[in-house]
């Protein structure tokens, strides 16, 4: 029997919220025709090139995201600050769990563009983000400790964090514990380029 694959929350993407309200075609009509293979986002002049590329990344996510097996044991990686695409003091800071599979998914998404960013991997006992929420390992205290041990404040000129959508109930607690402004991102990582909009940079 082949192992089950982990749920990557592709069905939790809310792509309709990025579709222009006054577009010549409603999202529901586009979605239906896209599934039939009779249309693509590239057919619409009212979408910017950046938006078309971001929609394609989200819609085609299953074709490039890694296959992650479902596991019942933690897979920890170091609790540290990881930079992708040569980030500087003005770059985004994304918070996630110190799980190897979680970071593999995130880094695969990030490889689709050239957006510089810092990834703050907080100590969740090596659990995936969803399991860290279940086991209450993704905590304001863990975030505060990670900010301090990585000396994040000395590496960026802002005090803004982007947290995963699954952790949205902790937003106020995160801000109170750290003093950093916290923005809640999408639940599915493949939605991030659309969510970031102009902040996401394609090659």
- Radius of gyration, rounded? 18 Å
| Percentage of residues in DSSP E strands | 5-15%
User: Biggest sheet: strands, sense, closure?
Assistant: 3 strands, mixed
Could you say what the CATH topology of the largest domain is called? Rossmann fold
User: Mean pLDDT, as a whole number?
Assistant: 95
Series of secondary-structure elements, N-terminal to C-terminal? HHHEEHEHHEHEH
Protein described:
Helix 6 crosses helix 7. This protein has a three-stranded mixed sheet, sandwiched between helices. Strands 4-5 form a two-stranded parallel ribbon. Helix 7 links the parallel strand 4 (160-163) and strand 5 (181-184). The protein has eight helices and five strands, in the order H-H-H-E-E-H-E-H-H-E-H-E-H. The chain is globular. The mean pLDDT is 95. It is α/β, with parallel strands linked by helices and 203 residues long. The relative contact order is 0.17.
Write the layout of secondary structure elements.
Elements: H1 27-36, H2 49-59, H3 61-64, E1 81-84, E2 92-97, H4 100-110, E3 117-122, H5 129-134, H6 140-149, E4 160-163, H7 171-178, E5 181-184, H8 192-196
Parallel strand pairs: 2-3, 4-5
Antiparallel strand pairs: 1-3
Helix pairs in contact: 6-7
Short description:
This protein has 203 residues and is of the alpha/beta class.
Question: Which key terms come to mind for this protein?
Answer:
alpha/beta; Rossmann fold; three-stranded mixed beta sheet; 8 helices; 5 strands; globular
């Amino acid at each position: 029997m082949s192992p089950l694959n982990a749920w990557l929350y592709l069905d939790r993407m809310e792509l309709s919220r990025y579709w222009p309200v006054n577009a010549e075609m409603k999202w529901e009509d586009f979605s239906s025709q896209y599934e039939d293979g009779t249309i693509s986002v590239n057919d619409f002049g009212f979408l910017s090139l950046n938006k078309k590329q971001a929609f394609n990344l989200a819609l085609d996510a299953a074709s490039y995201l890694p296959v992650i097996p479902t596991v019942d044991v933690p897979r920890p990686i170091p609790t540290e600050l990881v930079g992708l695409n040569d980030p500087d003091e003005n770059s985004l800071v994304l918070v996630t769990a110190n799980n190897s599979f979680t970071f593999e998914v995130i880094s695969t998404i990030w490889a689709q563009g050239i957006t510089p960013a810092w990834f703050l991997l907080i100590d969740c006992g090596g659990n995936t983000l969803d399991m860290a929420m279940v086991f209450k390992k993704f905590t304001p205290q863990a975030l505060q400790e990670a900010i301090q041990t990585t000396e994040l404040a000395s590496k960026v000129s802002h005090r803004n964090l982007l947290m995963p959508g699954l952790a949205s109930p902790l937003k106020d607690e995160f801000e109170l514990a750290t003093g950093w402004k916290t923005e809640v991102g999408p639940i599915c990582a493949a939605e991030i380029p659309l969510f970031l909009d102009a902040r996401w940079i394609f090659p």
